[in-house]
Amino acid sequence: MGLFRYVTAFTAIVLATIGVLLYRRRRYAHTHSTQNSPPSEDCPRGHVNSRSLLNAYKVTVVRTIEECERFLQNSVPGPVRVVGLDCEWRGPGYLSRKQHSNDDYESEESESKDCPVALLQLAFPNGEVVLVRLCQMKGIGQTLRDLLTNRSVLKFGVGISNDVSRLAAAIGVITAGCVDLQHIAVRCGIRSGTSLQGLCHQMLGLAMDKTFHLRCGDWEAKQLSQDQVDYGALDAIIALHILQAFVELKISKHDRRESSRNNHTSHDQPTAAILIGQSLETWLNNESHHACLLSLCQGVIDVKFKQKLSKTTKNLDNGAAPVVKRTSAYSVRQSSLYHNCRLLAPDGQLLSTMHRRKLEWYLERGLGTLVCESPMTVQLHFEPAGRPGADREYYLREKENICAVCGTNQNCVRKNIIPHEYRRHFPPLMKEHLSHDVLLLCVTCHQLASHHSALLKQLVAAEHDLYDDTSSHKFKEDSHLKQIKSHARVLLKDTAGIPEERLRMLRDSVAGHYQVEGDQLTMETIQAAANIDPRSPNRGYVSHSEVVVATLLAEGGEKRLVEFQRRWWQYFLDTMDPKHLPECWSVDHNPARSV
After folding, report:
1. For the chain, what is the radius of gyration of the CA atoms?
2. Helix (H, G, I), strand (E, B) or coil at 399
3. pTM of the entire predicted model
4. Does residue 196 register a pLDDT over 50?
5. Which residues contact 121 (CB under 8 A, 6 or more apart)?
6. What is the DSSP letter of 24?
7. CATH node for 54-101+108-192+211-239+285-304
8. pLDDT in tens, 162-188
9. Residue 109: which of 482, 502, 550 has the closest Cα?
């Protein structure tokens, strides 16, 4: 009997292990369905596997500011044009995942947005990779800061805006010159499978190891495992080679069009080898290649990639490509912002240039006389309360209806440099004169300026310790309801291969919430649990902007607000480098004249 029990138990363990492995294999194939099809025949193919590609790079792990500075100064000589960038952080559920490995089946929605960046990965075309252990450093050095903030050094990655936002919160540096490879993928006609793993498979023909325990491992560990080092380095390396493949793809398409135009016989599809080390650096420094690269990045530098999946395709089980719905985020102006109409005092002195409707208001009430129709000019019948001083010259100048950054007159949108959420809490005197804060930007420049504004808002929040202040969160999240929702979502998926013990625990968890027995749990109940909203309104909520403005007023009154205002305007100049600002526009403009 003892032997029989032993054999039975051993057999059960083996079968359970096989079931788990089969399930994970099926789930891996489903999650990365793009790998079920061969690489696009229109895309370059690679000739090495990911391991040999990784071995061709020298990976350096740095743990101190000094080590990082020494690496960048000695191992990356000369001007840098492109960098592969990625970040890793540890999810708050790491310990529970470690204790209950079957939580692999749950979605990654449980990852907290508050987790700081633990590792910054940078790959350079000369074959050098550095892994910066930010979790073990207090700040960063000047060389790394200059590299990150230099907009002429293009940083490439997938979902890079999320990495940039987390970096800004972690180290107080706004990374510039970032390009999401998903933008370039869409421009090259690839609209599905645009994750890093999907693009790697489609463009390079390589498979990447994206197992759950590596992605959500302990990136704050005292010592990274070799698997973690390889994983982190490869993410940054692959970004560079996907970029090369996109450039090769565009060049080959252009060559085929030219060949077709000249009635030449079409040749076989070009096959681009994966370049490594000095070869990749030389290739990227080729002026024609670099020009093609810049054309692919035009208009998407520092612009977040957004795509909205239709509800009918979010949970596709057949690997079909999701439908990308394009929505318009901006209402382009149909009329001019600046009418440059003129208002004169009784003695003929110019008081202001303004909108046509304001002058019509004076005429309708008999307060002025129309003295010129083009440009529309009205002379007042009464003495105005005040005359413009030397510091009000901006309001007297005519302004062009063009983008203040690039100068185009197409598709322009109003842009408040200081976000309205702050200005609405300003004192009345500082809210009266808003025109100095409003500029015209084209849609592309508006997107970029909004991206930078979001990063500065994060820095302001960090400076006022609002990340850890529960009153700054509009909603409270019930951890118990969140867990029930997560368990129900697992039960709604394909449960084949999940150990019976784990399934029973999940069912009992959901059943316990509804106070029923596990065997009485119905699919309707599970679906209801999966639709639970674990959030509830926070009655003590105070908006981020209200806290910031109140704090500044308490610290130094309107003088501190003027400094805050000047900071936003200067930040706009530094990040956008506008070439067509209205004449006399200045960061030193002060609407609160007495301050």
Report:
1. 29
2. coil
3. 0.57
4. yes
5. 84, 85, 86, 87, 88, 129, 130, 131, 132, 232, 233, 235, 236
6. H
7. 3.30.420.10
8. 888 888 878 878 888 899 999 999 888
9. 482
